[in-house]
Design goal:
This protein has eleven helices and 40 strands. By secondary structure, it is an alpha+beta fold. It has four domains: about 10-125, OB fold (Dihydrolipoamide Acetyltransferase, E2P) (Beta Barrel); about 140-150 and about 530-615, D-amino Acid Aminotransferase, Chain A, domain 1 (2-Layer Sandwich), CATH 3.30.470; about 175-280 and about 490-530, Endonuclease - Pi-scei, Chain A, domain 1 (Beta Complex); about 285-485, Endonuclease I-creI (Roll). The strands form twelve sheets. The protein has a seven-stranded antiparallel beta sheet with strand order 11-37-36-35-38-39-40. A four-stranded antiparallel beta sheet has the order 17-16-31-20, with no helix packed on it. It has a four-stranded antiparallel beta sheet with strand order 19-18-34-33, with no helix packed on it.
């Protein structure tokens, strides 16, 4: 059954004590386990259930999920499956009375168990973007063309099944990997694909071609397979490990092919192709680490999400060039810049890094009990680049006509002990500062001689837009920072395919696969992916619409979906069935035992059909 997205009124009918937490209980909505705080609930209470991937509106009843966060992003407002003290929780329950307090247009007496409130509460299902455009131009998404999200989870209908009852199961086939395949996790370690679980974070690639943590949202054990391929690639200048990489996969499993700039099935790759390999020793390079150290000493804030974190920072619009300078220096770990309005009504530009285990591991020591502190390791780690960004954030020039220039750092949010640590960091460069505190503010002050030593160190890294903080004799240059276009130790490297061979006789594994939020992952270091497709011949437009789950493509024939439509003459065939959306998976020849025609050479498998006019899916 096609999946539905509903936020239903439910009744608490069971509460089982959490085995590892005295204050928590486990209840169930359908067959989804949800962890709740015991003291907040009694049996019979009414609640609203928000399933995994719900994006919540900015209302007070939900604000505890993004506490201390102004203008939370869509992903920050999304409900995720999480483990709490070793037990899996799938969704969120909010008491109905709390919901009604924020939505006075709803009436308690008119609501009943089973009512779907998603539209009234303005809650919707999160749709991740396609990870990488597989060629061709996009076109506007037609309002009439639905997206095929998922098959409904069996947990929602488990109560309909009876022991001993015969059922029919159909399978949507993905390209798959052997059981011993190792997957690169978000912290840089590896796990066998059989050990990866829903809720784990692995490394994937986002739409900006950045290596990022991505949540595992499904796992698959697709049974035995009649054919396996062994793909061997070079692994040069890609960190620790062998000089080659080996992957055992089904023929239809897709690899990101650098040579052709799209995903290609293993069986269609050649030894002339290059695939994308991630470093095994991923880390923050020295420039990134120092910029982030300077930002977190200044205006930056560490936002932790499970086992990863990002550093976020913002400045007023007049400092937009400074934001761009920081963005450029961070290179592969910088996210897009966006405009926003602060809580005080100021026009701002906000930016952040990607979420990374390496950022969390390096900078989480800056926080203790939710308060920013200065860890002792800063003394020996700080360099002129970090000093420059700290000064641009929190420094100021003390300029008066009748005396030499001085420098100050604002340290209002730090204790005197923290400032002693900062003074020791400056002392490493023979810069002697003085801490002073008044009723209004705290400062580290450098007199003229000490300030001159600081300016000499940091001036090369200060762009024109921030040189007003330097004495005039240090101004006028463009500033310099290493180019991220030619970065030290790139996170991903194209590698040549050395061989592709049939190893069916040697591999007796089941077929395993995982699904992630970015729809790709590294196994352990080679980027792989599964794709899907939509096709519809629409009247009165009399036109074939083609695309993936999230994109509709322009009819230029330069992408995977148009290529397959032309190869299979889909426009002519689907004219006979207008206004029906055909959902499927793009393949080359499929494995024995799963043939869908007489010769096994179809490139597309259709697994569901939606009738636009009736608004219903066709019966199997």
């Amino acid at each position: 059954m096609p999946s539905t997205f509903e936020c239903e009124v439910v009744q608490i009918t069971s509460m089982e004590k959490h085995p590892n937490a005295d204050s928590l209980s486990i209840t169930k909505v359908y067959d989804y386990p949800v962890i709740i705080r015991t003291e907040d609930w009694t049996l019979g209470d009414l609640a609203v259930y928000f399933p995994v991937e719900s994006v919540l509106p900015e209302k007070p009843c939900f604000s505890f999920l993004w506490k201390n966060k102004e203008n939370p992003t869509e992903k920050q407002r999304m409900i995720r499956a999480i483990r709490l003290r070793g037990i899996f929780s799938m969704g969120l329950l909010i008491p109905l009375t709390q919901i009604l307090a924020d939505f006075p247009e709803l009436t308690y007496d008119l609501l009943k168990v089973g009512d779907d409130l998603s539209s009234q509460l303005k809650v919707y299902k999160y749709e991740p973007p396609d990870p990488i455009n597989s060629g061709g131009d996009n076109r506007k998404e037609p309002h009439w063309m639905p997206k095929y999200t998922d098959i409904e989870n069996v947990r929602k209908y488990g109560h309909y099944l009876k022991i001993g009852e015969a059922v029919v199961i159909t399978e949507k086939i993905h390209g798959c990997l052997a059981s011993h395949t190792k997957i690169r996790m978000a912290d840089g370690s590896t796990k066998k694909i059989t050990q990866v679980q829903v809720g784990d974070s692995v490394l994937g690639m986002n739409s900006n071609k950045q290596v990022v943590p991505t949540l595992v949202i499904n796992t698959f054990n697709n049974g035995k397979c009649d054919k396996w391929l062994k793909v061997v690639t070079e692994r040069c200048a890609a960190g620790r490990g062998n000089s080659y990489a080996t992957i055992y996969c089904t023929p239809n499993h897709k690899f990101w092919c650098v040579t052709r700039n799209k995903y290609i099935q293993a069986q269609n790759l050649s030894t002339d192709d290059y695939v994308l390999v991630a470093r095994s020793d991923l880390f923050l390079n020295p420039v990134q680490e120092q910029i982030l150290l300077g930002k977190i000493l200044g205006d930056g804030y560490l936002h932790v999400s499970k086992n990863t974190a990002a550093i976020e920072f913002g400045h007023t619009i007049k400092h937009d060039k400074y934001i761009e300078w920081t963005h450029s220096g961070l290179g592969s770990i910088s996210k897009n810049i966006h405009k926003c309005v602060s809580g005080y009504g100021t026009n701002m530009q906000q930016a952040s890094t990607i979420y990374s285990w390496f950022i969390k591991n390096k900078f989480e020591s800056f926080y203790k009990n939710g308060k920013k502190i200065i860890p002792k390791w800063v003394i020996d780690s700080i360099t002129p680049i970090a000093l420059a960004f700290w000064y641009m954030d929190d420094g100021s020039l003390g300029h008066h006509e009748d005396q030499e220039d001085r420098a100050h750092f604002a340290v209002c949010n730090f204790t005197e002990e923290d400032c002693d640590t900062l003074l020791l960091g400056l002392k490493r460069f023979n810069i002697i500062g003085t801490y002073y505190k008044s009723q209004k503010y705290s400062r580290i002050r450098l007199n003229a001689d000490e300030a001159e030593k600081l300016f000499l160190l940091i001036a090369p890294y200060i762009p024109k837009c921030m040189q007003y903080k330097l004495p005039e004799r240090y101004r006028g240059h463009n500033g310099w920072i290493p180019s991220h276009d030619n970065q030290y130790k790139s996170t991903t490297i194209p590698q040549k395919i050395l061989s592709i061979e049939d190893t069916t006789d040697k591999i007796k594994s089941n077929r395993y696969d995982i699904e992630t939020e970015t729809h790709n992952f590294f196994c352990p270091d080679v980027l792989v992916h599964n794709s899907n497709a939509r096709f519809c011949y629409k009247t009165p437009e009399n036109e074939l619409f083609v695309g993936s789950h999230n994109m509709i493509k322009a009819p230029d024939g330069k992408d995977n979906w148009n290529t397959i439509a032309q190869k299979l003459e889909l426009e002519e065939k689907l004219q006979k069935y207008p206004n029906h959306v055909f959902f499927g998976e793009v393949y080359g020849p499929v494995q024995k035992g799963f043939r869908y025609d007489s010769n096994g050479k179809l490139s597309l498998v259709i697994f569901d059909i939606f009738d636009i006019e009736s608004g219903k899916y066709l019966d199997l």
